[in-house]
Every structure is written in C-alpha cells, then in structure tokens.
Amino acid sequence: MKRLVCLLLGLLLCLPLCAGAETAKKTAMDVEVREHEALFSFEAAEQEFVYVKFSSKYDSGEMVLVSQDGVFSGVCPLPCTFDELTLTITAYTLGGKTLMRWDGKTVPAEGGSPCDTLDKTVRAAATARDVVMTVEPTGIRYSFYVPGRAKVLVCIKSPQESHTLLAYAGEGYTYEGFQEMPLTYADDNVTMTVLTVESSYELYRETVHAYFAPLEAAAQAETGRLSGVTVCIDPGHQRKTQVETVPLGPNFTKQSTTTVGMAQGVVTGRREAIVTLEIGLMLRNMLLEEGANVVMTREVQDTFVGSLERAEIANDAGADFVLRLHCNSRDDAHVQGIVIYCPYQSSYAMEAAPEDEYREMGFTLLHAMQAATGQTKGTCTLNNTYVTNNWSKMPSFLVEMGYLSNREEDLKIATDVYKNRLAQGMVEGIVELSRMRGLIE
Ligand SMILES: [Zn+2]
Fold this sequence. Notes:
elongated, alpha+beta, Immunoglobulin-like, binds zinc ion, 33% strand, 3 domains, six-stranded mixed beta sheet, disordered N terminus, Aminopeptidase
C-alpha cells in the first residue's frame, strides 16, 4: 500500500512537469491558419537548414528552409483544403530528427457547385476524355470532360507535394482548373489522376515533367578576375542514359562502357542529371560575370552527349579547364562530402600537367569549394577511370559535389543557397588555378 501511494504521488508530481514540457513543445511553432494556406514560424537555433513536412486530408508538401539566425518561416499551400480539417506541420533536422510538430485545424473556405444545372440523364462515362495537361512555370493546367459525372476527384502529385481536389463539372460535364505546385522541384514527375468520387475508380492517369526554366545566360563582363580564361562546364548525364563503348583514353588499349544509371536524391528523388544542369547553369553565369569565356557540353535535359564528345567540346573550344559536375551515391547513407577526380597516366593528362601539379590543382579546387560550402568532408583522387577526363587536353576535374544518398546533402543540394555556394566555390577554385597556371595575375 505504501508503495502504491508513493507511485501515485510520483505520478502526480510528474504530471504537471510532463504537461509543461508538452505545452512548451506545442507552442514552439507559431502558426497562422488562413483560407487555403497556413503560415508558420519557429526557432531552431542550432540549425542552418531545416526540412518541413505538412499534411491535411487533401494537401501535403515538404520544403527545405534556410536561415542565418535560426528563425525559420514558411507557407503551407492548401489549395484543395476547403473544410475544417486536421493539419499537421512537422519540422525536422536534415538528418531526419524531429525538431517540433504542430497539430491544428484548417479554416473552411467558401465554394459553390454548378453541377445542379447538369442533365442527370446522361450515362456516366468510365473515362475522362479530351484531357489536356499543360505544364506551366508555377503549376499544372488541366481540362477534360467526363459525360454524366457531376463531380470527380482530381489528384495531382509530385515527389514533394500532393493535392486532391473535389472538382465540380461545368457546362457539358467539362472540368478545368489550374493546380499550383510551388514545392515541386524542376523536372520532377507530376502525375494527375482523375477518380470517381463514390468508389475512387480511376478514370484517367498521366505523368508529365514539372517545369524546368533553364537559367538565361548572363552577360560576359568586359573585365573581371577571369578575363581571358576559358572554362568548359560539363553537367554530368542527361535525361536518358545511353550505353556507349569508347576507348578509355588516347594511349590506353582498354575500352570503357558507360555505367547505366545516375545518382538520385534519397529524400527528394531528384535525379543527378537535373542537379548538375541547374548548378552548371548557375556556374556558367558566375564565371561570365567574372569575365571568363564559358563553353557548355549541354544546356538541356533532352539530349545525348557522349563521354568522348564532352572532351572534344572542351578541346575544340581550347578551354583552359574542364569542370565536370556530378553527384555521388553510396550504399552507406552516412557518407558525405565533396570528391574530386583528376586523370593521370593518360597521355593528354600528362601533357596538360604533371601528376603532382594535377593533384595540387585538384586539392586547391576542393579547398575552395569546402571554404564556400562549409562542407569539411571530402578528398581529391587521381585515377584512369573517366573517359572525359582522360581525353581532355587541359586540366579536367570531375567534381562529385555531394552524396545524393545522404539525407543532409540531398536536401541541401536542393536549395538555391547551397547550389550557389557550390558554384561560388568552383569560381574561387578556378581563379586560384588560373593564377597557378599563369593565366591571370
Ligand atoms: Zn554522375
């Protein structure tokens, strides 16, 4: 009996403490719910980047936020949430640890239905017809008709967000609308499904690529730190991998066959080919603004540029350096960092620079990138593995900018802030290398 009393007492003493802790956790996130959106802000002093996920019954999304002072704020778009529904917003570290969570209700929105005027005698069709799905910079525009159905469910889903709308037919059982996709990364797959309201029977399904706006070329500065220097940027991969077998290097008898596949974000699902292109175009503009001449091996996703062809582009342009952008992937999800590969033993590479100088240049580039990004992990290695490196008549660096198999690096590399840092690091590296090579003062 004594023991039970003690236990009860202990429980009673503990209760207010637990409740207090719980309240503190819940009030840590400030949320203002409005019609079709929720504004949130919170403090996470230790973090520079955070990962936020939210969901209501009809909308969900995720985003990576960056803050210099540990105060984070953002907007959860809830375009399809018309009713008072449960909304959950959770903030995580990039490593996946829960920082805080908020649960509350959404605000009901006004909305009418024109379907009362429809002719109810039309037999309901089992497919959506004349579907037009257009990809626009901020979302997906759709139109279709389903004879006899006064309402359908329209689900539009990308790897990052999903919205489900109860859509009401207009005249002639036509449906049209525009779904904003603010959290979807460029070039990711977006799938639209049209379902019956009663049984979720699938009337239509189609997948398209989210909008990708290639960055327009900046004007080349007349004078700058890199005036007179030519850099070839080689954004690794392209939308579709094509297997090719080519000689490994000018003085090697071995052939090299393309390894099929590319790295893909473990959280974002972003493919290496789009990541390298986005950063490549940013880097192009930064180099142009420093006065450099820039040649690109590709500027679009839908193309095929072979490994040998990439070296030829650099050689034909008489480039001083080649920066080959790639992202790494490893089974061990903990591995992160920037890795740079330089060639050696290829006759072209040996003519471009002796082994020691190549290594020194590789490490110089690595250190410039580490200083710009804050990523301290990484290394530089010389090998004979890469065709483009081996066939380049100038210093050629394969830059693995980070591991998409690592949560943190995948999520960081999805932000403009970090992509800019990577590009800025490469610019600083090229400035130092140009000095080492006597191209600039
Ligand atoms: Zn790659």
